[in-house]
Specification:
The chain has 17 helices and 19 strands. It has 598 residues and is an alpha+beta fold. It has a 9-stranded antiparallel beta sheet, with helices on both faces. It has a 6-stranded mixed beta sheet with strand order 2-1-3-4-5-6.
Length: 598
């Protein structure tokens, strides 16, 4: 991870500059702080759960995050997914669309604990899950649970069984979430903490007293509604994580960081963050707020939670300006104004490809798999000698893998075993325009977890990589694993787990890559298909969780995109042996020069 040095006053990169453009922002912040101080009057007593455990305790402090308010680090969250019979609408651009809600619930129950880690002594998952069909739910089944997630509960029998189970333990349940395919009776039962969706009084209290626990619950439920309206496992998982953490059930490191001022943070922390921004980054703030496109981006980002990776990243890539990059670089990376530190998730433990072409995978072979079909002297003898290494067929992360026309370009750095990675992809902006985006990553070998279990010699493991980049002012670090690859390089499956630590974002994904972006012809059925399925399952992913293509039809490489590409060729030239920071500096200087000409 690249970390900036900090000075005694915790500011780096600050410049003296005249101007008062930031005073307006700071004044608004001070008004907010004064309101907080004037109105922090509400407190709540803990309640006891039906099973004897203490329920989430809401207390009012002024300098802690919501997780610090309510929970100890090792508190366990209990989550039950309840599946109904409605049509899911899941995976419409996947190889296997429309799984049942029972399949979805089982998969979410499998994956959710991996995003929260284990207790400090490693004895238990921080999140413990169950999946139960609504038709098999008994009145006592939800006792001892903190969160219930109803998906597709729509028939009279399903609603009745779920309703009886909720009523039996309603005082102990901290949250009841439901997706839009549930029927009205189930949707009306939604709750988050002290906020109940069906209560007009709760709505009134939340509106009148925004610092109350009721208002916190309404904000949490609104956030989960947004995520559950999307058909993506990542969004569903983060909806539950937000509820667990935001309601103080347990501390979740993957979502504990928050870049936005909020009632939950309290006035002291909000004031400290604003003061640090003003002290360290005043020139960058003035420049950002003075540029119309950058100000628009900041306003749009203010409307979404930056931990909502789908929503926030689309805003960012739609509004890439040098002012936004310098603003983000100063506030997040150089000065860490918000104290964010999202972890790189270490589960699931994805296995590494051990043999390729009948031999143990060594570093030369591992590099050849990444280089794929690039026209390079070090590429494999089955390389098709193209301007790119791979094209993406499908991916698992809706924020980063769902962009069309994705080209991967891997090539040696000329120094040791390290490489460079230059992805090029199309972005459909918020203004319905199409643009090309390009990034530059350093790729270095790393040690895979299996090497320790097998007692291998010290040092990195062939096929396991660490990737670092600077993306719009945010440093990202990613752990990549070569999961499987055909001997003729007709396809490869790669997994990654990464974090933009200072932005408070943890993420995972997996990719199927081929030379042309189409599903490999000999893997549309039979052993070939099952081998690719097995590769994704080793990443805890099912086919219906992927985006971009069926086995017969590509959405990422549809005619509407390829026709546009013909008139707008992608920038596939290799950036080369230049450091990430030097390349970004060069690109920023070019962008500022173009603005001055305009």
């Amino acid at each position: 991870m690249i970390r900036a040095n900090t000075s005694t006053c915790a500011c780096t990169g600050s410049r003296k500059a005249a101007g008062c453009g930031y005073l307006t922002i700071l004044s608004s912040a001070l008004v907010l702080v004064l309101i907080f101080f004037a109105k922090q009057i509400e407190s709540f007593q803990p309640t006891t759960r039906n099973d004897g455990r203490r329920a989430s305790t809401t207390t009012t402090t002024t300098s802690s995050t919501s997780s610090q308010l309510f929970s100890s680090p090792d508190k366990i969250a209990h989550v039950t997914f309840v599946s109904g019979s409605a049509e899911t609408g899941y995976g419409q651009t996947s190889p296997e669309p429309n799984p049942t809600w029972a399949q979805v619930c089982n998969q979410l129950a499998l994956r959710l604990p991996h995003f929260a880690g284990t207790t400090s002594d490693g004895s238990s998952d921080i999140i413990q899950t169950r999946s139960i069909p609504a038709t098999e739910l008994n009145a006592e089944d939800l006792k001892g649970q903190d969160v219930v997630v109803a998906l597709g509960v729509c028939t009279s029998e399903e609603e009745t069984r779920l309703g009886e189970a909720i009523e039996t333990t309603s005082d102990a349940l901290v949250a009841v979430l439901a997706d839009p395919t549930c029927a009205a009776a189930t949707l009306s039962r939604q709750k988050a903490g002290k906020y109940v969706r069906s209560s007009p009084l709760a709505d009134l209290l939340a509106a009148l007293i925004p610092w109350s626990a009721t208002a916190t619950g309404r904000r949490v439920l609104s956030k989960t509604d947004t995520l559950l309206a999307r058909k993506s496992s990542e969004d569903y998982i983060f909806a539950v994580l937000f509820a667990i953490h935001g309601l103080g059930i347990a501390t979740i490191d993957a979502v504990k960081s928050d870049l936005s001022p909020s009632w939950e943070k309290g006035p002291i922390r909000n004031a400290k963050e604003f003061a640090k921004m003003a002290e360290c980054c005043q020139p960058q703030i003035i420049a950002a707020m003075s540029d119309p496109q950058t100000k628009r981006a900041i306003d749009l980002l203010d409307e979404v939670d930056l931990r909502d990776q789908v929503g926030s990243y689309r805003v960012i890539v739609s509004n890439e300006t040098p002012e936004l990059e310098e603003f983000t670089l100063c506030i997040l990376q150089q000065n860490d104004c918000f104290g964010c530190d999202a972890p790189i998730l270490d589960r699931p433990k994805v296995p590494l490809l051990k043999e390729w072409r009948g031999k143990s995978l060594d570093f030369d072979a591992a590099k050849q798999i990444l280089m794929g079909h690039l026209d390079h002297p070090d590429a494999s003898d089955c390389s098709q000698r193209k301007d790119w290494s791979w094209r993406i067929v499908v991916g698992a992360n809706p924020a980063y893998d769902a962009f069309p026309l994705q080209h991967q370009i891997f090539y040696p750095s000329g120094k040791g075993k390290s490489m460079w990675y230059d992805p090029v992809f199309c972005v459909e902006t918020l203004d319905d325009e199409r643009i090309w985006c390009k990034r530059h990553y350093r790729v270095t070998p790393r040690r895979h977890w299996s090497a320790d279990e097998e007692g291998a010699e010290k040092g990195p493991t062939p096929g396991a990589w660490t990737l670092n980049t600077l993306d719009n002012g945010m440093v990202s670090e990613e752990k990549w694993t070569t999961v499987d690859a055909a001997d003729d390089l007709s396809w490869a499956v790669l997994h990654y787990s990464g974090a933009a630590r200072r932005a408070g974002q943890s993420y995972v994904g997996a990719l199927l890559c081929t030379p042309d972006g189409q599903w490999p012809a000999d893997c549309r059925s039979g052993e070939g298909l099952e081998r690719i399925r097995a590769a994704f399952r080793s990443c805890d992913l099912e086919f219906w969780e992927l985006f971009g293509a069926s086995t017969e039809k590509s959405y990422m490489w549809a005619d509407t995109y390829t026709s546009w590409k013909k008139n707008n060729p992608p920038p596939l030239d290799r950036i080369g042996d230049i450091s990430i920071t030097a390349w970004r500096k060069k690109e920023l200087e070019k962008a500022f020069a173009e603005k001055q000409k305009a």
